[in-house]
Amino acid sequence: MKQSVVSQMTTEELKEQIFEMKKALEKLKATHAITPLENPMEIRNKRRSIARMLTELTKRNNQVA
Fold it and tell me: Sorted alphabetically, which Pfam families does this protein's record hold (predicted)?
């Protein structure tokens, strides 16, 4: 997910999306441990998307405080 998309999301949407992406990442990791994924870069991309969203959330919380 691109930063421009993340910055346009509301705080609630961000929290929901982070939760969903973390679940998907856990599922991908479990699947990859059993049988190799066709595209293992999916794990990296999901992890980085989660980091982008968490960064945006932290940025918003620091601006409010």
Answer: Ribosomal_L29
